[in-house]
Write a structure and sequence with these properties.
Layout: H1 26-29, E1 38-41, E2 44-47, H2 55-71, E3 78-81, E4 86-87, E5 101-102, E6 106-109, E7 115-116, E8 119-121, E9 126-130, H3 136-150, E10 154-159, E11 164-171, E12 174-177, E13 181-182, E14 186-188, E15 196-198, H4 199-202
Parallel strand pairs: 4-8, 9-10
Antiparallel strand pairs: 1-2, 3-6, 4-5, 6-9, 7-8, 10-11, 11-12, 11-13, 14-15
Length: 207
């Protein structure tokens, strides 16, 4: 991966998520020339676990995205799949003041004022993350924290090799987990009106 110098400090490589190289903003992020996807979480760099998602990951993502897209055809919400930058500002929407930029596998945004040419600025209503080998701690700890703090109403976590889905629903500013759903279950979103997902269809034909 090749990254240009952010401001006055050179960044030659990204090795571990909690890098010693410093704290970076979205303004820095926009200057980088990337050969692979990276995300910023509270100013720290996280690189993707692999050069490209695996086939099962892509199949599950496509199954969920297709059903959301069809459901939202006559709905005010929009759905996007990665790569799609979601900026989560804390104090200011200025690029230099934003320190979390993530690329969820799937994002649903109902407030279209949050959309611009660069992606989304502010919390999506629903985020789906499909765990990949090697990035579980990022999804289950670091992203959980910023999604909860930013006000993402629902955070769906898919474990592809276990054929399971867990939904975190934001209630009074804190996430409340669902039971663990699996094949045979039909799950329903509380924030996307009328959306139901049959997990038989999500995990179909993955062998």
């Amino acid at each position: 991966m090749k990254i240009t110098e952010p401001k006055s400090e050179a960044l030659n490589k990204v090795e571990e998520p909690h890098t010693e190289y410093g704290v970076y903003s979205y303004a820095d992020y926009l200057t980088w020339e990337l050969d692979e996807m990276v995300e910023l979480i509270k100013g720290k760099i996280f690189k993707s676990a692999a050069a490209a998602p695996r086939r099962i990951h892509q199949k599950i993502s496509g199954n969920i995205f297709f059903r959301l897209y069809k459901h939202l055809e006559n709905h005010p919400c929009d759905v996007f799949s990665a790569p799609f930058d979601v900026r989560l500002p804390v104090k200011s929407k200025r690029n230099e003041d934003i320190f979390t930029v993530v690329q969820p596998d799937i994002s649903v945004i109902c407030d279209k004022s949050k959309l611009d040419d660069l992606g989304c600025i502010g919390a999506p209503d629903l985020i789906v993350e499909i765990l990949s080998l090697g990035n579980n701690s990022k999804e289950l700890r670091d992203k959980y924290e910023v999604y909860e703090e930013s006000g993402v109403k629902e955070y769906w976590v898919v474990l592809p090799y276990e054929w399971t889905l867990l939904i975190y629903t934001l209630i009074d500013g804190k996430y409340v987990p669902s039971k663990l759903f699996t094949v045979g279950d039909i799950v329903e979103s509380k924030c996307i009106s009328g959306f139901k997902l049959d997990l038989n269809e999500v995990f179909n034909d993955l062998e």
